[in-house]
Design a protein that fits this description.
Layout lengths: L9 H17 L4 E17 L2 E19 L2 E7 L4 H15 L33 H16 L5 E20 L4 E19 L2 E11 L8 H14 L9 E7 L1 H14 L2 H5 L18 E5 L22 E5 L2 E2 L6 H7 L13 E5 L6 H8 L2 E8 L9 E12 L2 E14 H6 L1 E4 L9 E2 L3 E9 L2
Parallel strand pairs: 7-12, 11-16
Antiparallel strand pairs: 1-2, 1-4, 2-3, 4-5, 5-6, 7-17, 8-9, 8-11, 9-10, 12-13, 13-14, 14-17, 15-17
Helix pairs in contact: 1-2, 3-4
């Protein structure tokens, strides 16, 4: 096999997948699907001006799932030679003989397979040597440390580049793949003033290297954030508005996506059980899935089952329009797949009332907590109960007053979603959910 990890490998990988599918057919499988991927990456971390790690990654993986009239077996291999592929398929078929028949198991419907594959501009290789990456990480960290003499320590600055190519095929005749890249720069710094020590970070990520923020600005932002947290204090327990920063808001809305996934719905383990058609957010909030945005981090022409990805409105005027479904969960619910096997594809959270910049959000909030970091996993997906450790800043009369730490933000997600007051214009573009800061009214803040 050649050493490249790009579109030139697709014909070779298509042949491997086609061979695996033919072996499954020969073994008597009624249906089969296979997925092969190649990954390559470089990650360099510099701490206090010294190289701490240089990691080079190169992986390959092939997986197959076979169905014998609803009985399912899966196997995988990192060996792509024909004899290894043949043995892997045989193992999957053997496993299927021990599994119970499931009437809902199987491929997505043939009619749902992607027919046209738009070029989403997801592949932008970065020819980055370890020496150049070390220089970039060193400059990023140095720029951050130079912000203030109270920046006395570092957890390091990292530069990463990653490329991959994937091909998926199934016994419906679907067989396609595409290459992707992702790159990032991050920095974590520690500030100290007497006995007070605080840590903060910043990062940037993009499909193309030219889409990354200036690396020295990443370092400076990390330093400024760490310095701003010095003098953090606890506050007394109270109820007050909370403003989640954009990267935190991404996770806040992620809990909603998890609650409307098909697996949560058919297991009846969701705080938004059977909520399609219900008002779950204020009327000004819209959620739109846009799978085909160019260069976006969660774009894809087809989902993990080969189903066409399409634009859809998940929430319209605050009303939940449907669920996030792959074919299995759709069948369990008596519904149709939404092309979300493997996850959501670029969910845009927008406001028909307009988006506010950060000063305007502070003014709208008046007095409350601006959350910039959350800790812990205190979210109950069944009840919606929410309780997480938080740090950030107390806002008084629309202005930042002082940093806050060692507090807990608590409430119930159903009420918190209904209590959304405004959305911000500083959109976080680094994940599958694209949102700005979100202002939530009347949340319990437990302090000292």
């Amino acid at each position: 096999m050649s050493q490249a990890v790009d579109a030139s490998r697709i014909p070779e990988l298509r042949d491997i997948v086609a061979f695996a599918l033919q072996e499954a057919k020969t073994a008597g499988a009624s249906q089969a699907e296979a997925d092969v991927s190649l990954q390559q990456g470089l990650n360099v971390t510099v701490r206090l001006g010294e190289v701490e790690t240089i990691e080079y990654q190169r992986d390959r993986a092939l997986g197959i799932t076979v169905y014998f009239n609803g009985a399912k077996g899966s196997a995988s291999s990192a060996d792509l030679r024909p004899e290894a592929v043949r043995a892997m398929v045989a193992k999957a078929c053997s496993i299927a003989t021990f599994t119970a028949r499931d009437e809902f198991a199987g491929l997505a419907d043939a009619a749902d397979m992607a027919r046209e594959l738009p070029d989403l501009d997801l592949h932008h290789p970065w020819t980055l040597t370890p020496e150049v990456a070390i220089g970039m990480a060193t400059a990023c960290e140095a720029a951050g440390m130079a912000v203030d003499p109270r920046l006395t320590n570092s957890e390091g600055a990292s530069v990463s580049t990653h490329r991959g190519v994937r091909v998926y095929g199934n016994s419906h005749g679907f067989l396609a793949g595409y290459p992707t890249t992702s790159h990032s720069v991050s920095c974590v710094l520690l500030a100290q003033d007497g006995d007070d020590m605080q840590r903060d970070y910043w990062y940037t990520a993009a499909r193309a290297p030219e889409g990354l923020d200036d690396l020295e600005q990443v370092g400076r932002r990390a330093g400024q954030r760490a310095i701003a947290r010095l003098g953090a204090r606890q506050i007394s327990t109270r109820k007050a508005p909370v403003l989640f920063a954009a990267d935190i808001a991404r996770g806040f809305f992620g809990h909603m996506v998890s609650a409307v996934r098909g697996s949560s719905q058919y297991r009846k383990s969701s705080f938004l059980q059977d909520a399609a058609g219900e008002q779950v957010l204020p009327g000004f909030v819209q959620m739109q899935e846009r799978p085909h945005l160019l260069r976006a981090m969660a774009s894809s022409p087809f989902d993990a089952e080969g189903v066409t990805t399409r634009d859809r409105e998940l929430v319209c005027n605050g009303v939940l329009q449907g669920y996030v479904l792959g074919s299995y969960s759709a069948r369990k619910l008596g519904l149709h797949t939404t092309g979300n096997a493997g996850g959501i594809h670029n969910l845009l959270v927008t406001s028909s009332a307009g988006l506010l910049d950060l000063p305007a959000l502070f003014a709208r909030m008046g007095s409350g907590l601006y959350v910039t970091e959350l800790m812990g996993q205190g979210v109950n997906g069944v009840t919606g109960d929410y309780s997480r450790g938080a740090t950030g800043f107390w806002v008084e009369n629309g202005e930042l007053a002082y940093p806050v730490h060692e507090v807990t933000v608590a409430g119930n997600l159903k009420a918190m979603y209904r209590g959304v007051q405004a959305l911000g214009s500083d959109i976080d573009l680094l994940g599958a959910i694209r949102t700005g800061p979100v202002l939530v009214d009347e949340v319990t803040i437990a302090g000292g």
